[in-house]
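worker-03 picked up job from queue 'complexes'. Input manifest follows; two sequence lines, order preserved.
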Amino acid sequence: MTERPVVRTVSGRALDELTIEAVLAGELTAEDFRISGETLRRQADAAEATGYPQLAHNLRRAAELTRVSNQEVLDVYNALRPGRATYDQLIRLADHLEGDLDAPLTAALVREAAEVYLERGLVE
Amino acid sequence: MKTRYTSGTGAATLMGHSEGKSMLYLEARCLLVTRGAGSQGTQNGSISCIALPESLPGGVRAVLAENLIATMLGLEVAAGNDALASHSEMRKSAKLMLQFIPGTDFITSGYGTIPRYDNMFGGGNFDVSELDDWYVLQRDMQVDGGIVPVGEEEVLRARTRAVRAIQAVFEAFGFAPISQAEARAAVTAYSSQDVPDRDRVADIESARELLEGTVTIVDVIQALEESGFHDVAANILEMQRQRVIGDYLQPGAIFGAAAPPCASGVRSFQVLSAITDPNDYQGPGTGYRVEGERWLALQNLPQAWDPRTFLQELGAPRREDWLQEVGPAGRGGRQEVVVAVGPAFGAGIDRTIGGLDLRDVLGALLQGIHDEGVVGRVVRVHHTSDCAFIGHAGAQLSGAGVAIGVQSKGTTVIHQRDLDPLENLELFPQAPNLDLDTYRQIGRNAARYAMNKPAVPVPVRIDNTARLRLIVQTTLMHLRETRQIEHDRPPTELRLCGVGPAGREEPEGAEG
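worker-03 finished. Artifact:
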């Protein structure tokens, strides 16, 4: 394997800073143990190169979602359940993801879902 | 984003969506959706639904096909072999065996270390009391079931450490305390019945505090470290670091499969996955093979005994004190029975496989011969370790043409000069079932054959567990005897000291 680039957490810390000493000194919070979008994209590249393109897409959407709150992620998840949202609500959600949250890949998934749900009678 | 879909043969049907399709078709479709959605893997193998395919002809074959499809799609498979598949011991084991062959990532999704009646999740296909069998299955089939045999001491050490660590974290967070008595009981508990009842209302309150409060994993690591559980704290910290690294997100990822914890108790977190260790199965003999260090670890069963110890205890190289070689054995000229013993008799092997002292065995045979008023003479056969040939060689030397052949592990034959080597008058093939009374009866019968008197075959006890139980010992004893063969050496006369009927028969000078 080639040398790894420095892995940083979503809070910007380098992996080397996540030590037991730092825990004891009260310097770390749970936020310091969250994976960054950059690392997820690198994992996506590795998955794609090994023949897992669908997993790569998933990881790239996950990278976008590192900037989105847990509550909003849950809201998207629930809206995508069958019969929970109208076609228009799904399209508005996609616009919000793309325009306000800088998550174009996730927005594209929601738009695709809206079209498929409409066709298959899965919208509210 | 680690996701694992779950589906299985029978699931779509049970939910009322069979659409007139076969269960395998429906499951194949689910697996393609799993792959298409970008999930790393699937939990399948018809888990909760297993009884539905099992109710149909060829149903379990479809379950095997389902696992195969998942593997072909490159999905990690947590096969549901831990879930109860049948109440028949044979059917549930047979279903398990199917997963030994395709080499799914995980033969089971896990192991319950509780007895079945404590398992609130539906009851396992096997439970903690069957882990010893699992070790042996891994060794029998050279498969990796994911568990490494450990000795009792190691289990007790790990359980003590775990209980004390939990106790310390409860105390640090002010949860309902775990008493010393509870902690002690939990270390050796087999089931929930072996630990004292707890105040469950207080426990639920603690759980609520944990869920709703501000405690995070960082606080847990700190509590463990400050309570002196450095290794546990380090392992949990490393798990959090791994979340940041993300290698475990790849399909089939496991942490440091082959490496046991190092001396400090800190585990290896090297990730093996479809990326770092791709599935290279191309047909028989390829793909993941259990070998090297891992294979050695799986073979190291705590219940296995060491054949070298057994060999050391078999006997002294030569027992001159009671069995002396006095020269070549000739043919006797009188009404006698020759007792022909094998090359290692009292010369490397001192006991039969049934644990009888060979002096007592020889004494009983000679006593039986003596009981009938016949003379017994003892010779050693050097050129073979085969019971029939030992007896046959003895019969050629016997004045009456009758001999008892005795292998050093105790297997015995009554032979006669005119018979072919593999024929016999009476054969006693299962030495573990012979006792001294039987040997004495064998001596009597041999004497009666020597006198041309009628004899009723000696009855023997039947124990058909002996073969499976003692085959390794049989092999080791027979190997020792066979290694002492001297092909060109004719039989020798043996003189006994303090063995046999009172006054012992001195060997008579050979004639001819």
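worker-03 released lock.
The interface with chain A takes residues 1, 3, 35-40, 74, 216-218, 221-222, 225-226, 230, 233-234, 237, 240-241, 243-247, 249-251, 274-276, 278 of chain B (CB under 8 Å).
The first strand of chain B starts at residue 4 and ends at 6.
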